[in-house]
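Task card 7
Instruction: Convert sequence to structure tokens.
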Amino acid sequence: MTSIFINYRRRDDAYAAALLDYGLSQQFGPESVFRAGRSILAGEDYEVGLSTALDLCSAMVVIIGPDWQDSFDASADTSDWVVIEISRALRRNIRVIPVLLSGTERLRADALPPELKTLARLQYLRFDYRNISQDLAHITAEIRRAVPELATAQPSDPRVARESSR
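Output:
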């Protein structure tokens, strides 16, 4: 299954993850968008759920808020799921799309853990609370353009298609 994996830090960026999940699910179908808080079932092994979704995804959207770069532990904590998910996607050559939230500066490689330095060179998109509809439409169009397998993806529920066309 072709899917979009939403990577985010719960502390600061969960609202944007939920908004993007909702908007992308309307465009691609909820079964094509993975967000841990919605997609991992109660009682399911969290690590298995994340690993499976990473194995099946075609694109990863990395939500980056203003304090995101400062959130990495200098001791290189190997249990940081944000780092694990992104570095695994980069190693697998999955399309990784950084999405910078309102007020977020461009990433600096020197502020990132070694395994994420590539992220600073990737073309990013913006998601601003003042332009949610416009930015979501742009993010959707860019995902369709960058990931050919997702170009023709449609929501599976006709009610979702009607709502998104209004």
